[in-house]
Amino acid sequence: MGRATLPEGHSQILTTLNNLGTALFREKRFSESAPIFEQVYQEQLERFGAEHQATLATAANLATNYFSAGRYADSLQHYLAVHKASQRLPSLRGYTQEYLEVCLRLDKRAEAEPLFAEVLAFVRATYPAGSEKLASALTRNGQVWLEFGAAAQAEPLLAESYEIRARLQPDKWSTFAARSALGAAVLARDAFAEAEPHLTAGASGLLERESAVPASGLPRIDDAIARVVELYTRWNAAAPSAELAEKLALWQARQKVREKK
């Protein structure tokens, strides 16, 4: 039996379905929202064609749904279509960030590399200089660079993000998370003494503010502590000393406490 189609002229039904899919997506019920977006996309594809703005908007929703559910391969073709169309439809340019991350996760580095410049240009054109939103976008991009082994590209973005956060929100937990990320980029070039204050202050600040960290941000604490342990492990291996061994033991103990939680 073929797929049932909606009656002609019932665009309101598509709008209702799309709204339902969006509501389920916002509740992170990705397995329920995906088939709804898929149905809306297929209907629009048949009625309007692949290049219609409504079809592309739904393709973007569907790609983001797949992305959020970890279905990176499924999202790729939709992100590619949305990215191509974004040259004539500026409203779609915000999806380039996710397209970039999908390319990297699928080890498509050749496709990913030119996207970094696009994303950064979009971010700087969209958010005011020195704003919290700019800092958040820079942190995200810097962490993507870090995750995929490009610390040299990550460091200036993370440094700028941390500077903004330290000025605007010096006591907020996310400022310390940003400082830890900056320290990781510095550590990647084996600048142990330079990385130390960023990594230790970042981890300590997060531990002190753990009660203010949302559940989604708790892994940042573990990451920050792991970075300090990595710092002292590598530093002590390169230049052994009792002081470094003592610091390493202290942070390893803190790490074990966290692991028991």
Name the poorly predicted regions: none
Number of domains: 2
**Mean pLDDT figure:** 93
Structural class, from secondary structure content? mainly alpha
Gyration radius, in Å: 22 Å
| CATH fold descriptor of the largest domain | Serine Threonine Protein Phosphatase 5, Tetratricopeptide repeat
SSE order, one letter for each helix or strand? HHHHHHHHHHHH
CATH-level-2 architecture of the largest domain: Alpha Horseshoe
Helix content: over 70%
Task: Describe the structure using short key phrases.
12 helices; Serine Threonine Protein Phosphatase 5, Tetratricopeptide repeat; 2 domains; 261 residues; 0% strand; mainly alpha
Written description of the protein model:
The protein has 261 residues and is mainly alpha-helical. It folds into two domains: 11-126, Tetratricopeptide repeat domain (Serine Threonine Protein Phosphatase 5, Tetratricopeptide repeat, Alpha Horseshoe), CATH 1.25.40.10; 130-261, Tetratricopeptide repeat domain (Serine Threonine Protein Phosphatase 5, Tetratricopeptide repeat), CATH 1.25.40.10. Helices cover 76% and strands 0% of the residues. It contains twelve helices and no strands. The protein has helices at residues 11-26, 30-48, 53-68, 72-85, 96-105, 109-126, 132-147, 151-168, 173-187, 192-208, 218-238, 242-259. The longest helix has 21 residues, at 218-238. The model has no long low-confidence stretch (mean pLDDT 93).
